[in-house]
# Entry
Amino acid sequence: MSFSELGLSPKVLSAVEAAGYSEPTPIQAQAIPHVLERRDVIGIAQTGTGKTASFTLPMLSILERGRARARMPRSLILEPTRELAAQVADNLVKYGVNHKMTVALLIGGVSFDEQDKKLDRGADIVIATPGRLLDHFERGKLLLQGVEVLVIDEADRMLDMGFIPDIERICSLIPFTRQTLFFSATMAPEIQRLTDTFLQNPKQIEVAPPSSTVSTVSQVLIPSQNDDWKKREVLRRHLKQAEDLQNAIIFCNRKRDVSVLFRSLEKHGFMAGALHGDMDQRSRMMMLENFRTGRIPILVASDVAARGLDIPAVSHVYNYDVPHNAEDYVHRIGRTGRAGRTGTAITIVTPKDRVSLDAIQTLIGKTIDWSDDPVFATSPDDDETKPRERGRKSSSRSSAKSTAGGRKEKRAPRREREEENEAPVVGMGDHVPDFLLRPVSLPKQKKSKVA
Ligand code: AMP
# Structure
């Protein structure tokens, strides 16, 4: 199938050609004709499937007729995060090169002034996060009666982030005659309720079963002990030896751990950046741009960054922590293997992650293999983490274990071990000659006045 068969306008087709797309992805092929017929659509699709173009391309075709009026946008795209909203805006710039559409990006963390000016001049398309949109509405700067096309993107993420009441309110402010396009990777009951209430006779399109992982991603588990310092060591080892690693996103469950891991990687000489919800908008955008252009090849991120980042060629995704929510696993690893490319997803698993790991494997409907690289089978606690029947290359593993695990030493307290592991190697490194460890009695010193 080619794009020209979908009914898109010549201007849009020429932009698609300029973007270098040879044929529509399945979600595009299925959704675009229905959107152009002005039907409501529910698209069940993961990120990376080309779903953004499945609503932006027909939207541009539809909006070619007519003009925007001050404060009355003609279409509205709701996104759960600022990054996603900014990305959709970037896509609209790319696909709208042949149009004179005014696009207003209404996101938090930046001043209202510029956004107000854009709205005053008349925006054809508004892309917004729900909170900021309602702020503008309440300040009287925005009227929603003119919205002809409403897009609710990443609805399951909206649910996770507690935005459903805002979405309901926004839906009730827009005329019932609008066309609604609704996208979600999964259809939780709350989301189903939302579509039942606000969509009219929608066409449901599903390009991959919910919770499925893309087949171009090879998924691997690596065992580790519970301690953070041990996990960081396992991660560093993998980062150093991964042959085909071009760039990586490393996911942590908690914001705090994003900062700790980022600093640790930097200290160990990795070019890394961090991305989490507490950073201001400017820093987030700069970080993303640096990652996108390759200046920073490793990005440590929280789940805020997990959905929809439009970074075409991420070679590796690391789950530094096994996500507690199994669906987050699907979203995280959806950052690699995009648009038909191959990718690798590595998950570091500690003994306490067994329940979460089981939930993930049940959700995706398959067992993820443990790494068969003997380098990652040296942990003395392996057998606690890795079920025996799944262990492979047992001979190399046991030989590796006899060297690393054979030394029975009294373990230092956790804090000490962390420091020991994190400290840069200077001087003689680990080797301390005996004479340096002998107690020395120092001559008594006069008390310093400063102290
Ligand atoms: P999305 O799922 O919308 O985040 O898109 C994932 C990636 O696929 C983006 O980098 C798009 O630029 C790219 N893409 C979208 N449609 C196509 C297409 N028809 N052919 C090739 N790449 C595409």
Notes: The CA atoms of residues 374 and 395 lie 9 Å apart. Confidence is low (pLDDT under 50) at residues 379-438, 446-451.
